[in-house]
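Bumping with the actual sequence this time:
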Amino acid sequence: MERFTTIIGAAGIGCFLLAWALEGWLPLHHLNKIPVQTLEQIAPRPSAAFLDLNRRYPEAFAKHYGEPNAEAFREALKLARDTYIAEGCWHCHSQFVRPVSNEDIRFGPVAAAAEYQNEMQLPQLLGTRRVGPDLSREWNKHSVDWHVAHFYDPVSVVPTSVMPSYGWFFDDKDRPNKSGIAIVSYVMWLGSWTEDWDLGNARPSASVPRKDGAS
C-alpha cells in the first residue's frame, strides 16, 4: 500500500510539473520572443473614425479633445478601454476568435498570440460568452453613424439586439460626449493594426506596407 501511495504521489507531481511546463513556461517562453508594441506604435495617427467624429460633432469634439491629433486619439483609446472594461462589454463581446463552432467563418481567422502583444491588449479581453459578435477585428465593419446609433439605441440598427442603450455616452443634445466619442473610436479601431498582416502566419506581411491606425 505504501508503494502504491508513493507511485500515485510521484505521478501526481509529474502531472503537475508537465502541466506547468506546457501551460505556464512554454507559452511564456514563446510570447517573450514577440515584442509588446506600445500604443504609439499601433496608433501613430488618428483613425479615420476619430477624424469623422470630429467632422460630425465639432463642438462636442472640441470641448472634450480639442484638436483631432495623435495625442488626443490615444487619450480617447485609453479612456475607451477603461470604459469598455468598466461597463462589462467583454462579458458579451469577446476579443478572441476561437477555433470552434465555425467562428473563423463568421469572424475571420482564428486569433493568434501576436495580435495581443500590445499594451492595449494586456490584460486580454478574451471574454467568456458569445451574446454579441466578436469585436477583435471590428475596424471597417460599420460606419461611424451606425456605431453612434447602436450605442444610443441598439435595436434601431439590430432589431434582435439584447444590448442595453448606453444613453450616458451622450449629452443632453444627443451628441456623443467624451466617453461616447472614445468608445466609438475604440471599437472602430480594434484590430486595425492587423490590416496588412498575414493572419495565417500571425505576423505583418513583408510585401505590404503597414497602415497602422487606419479605420
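The C-alpha cells above came from a reply further down the thread. The chain is about 45% helix and 0% strand.
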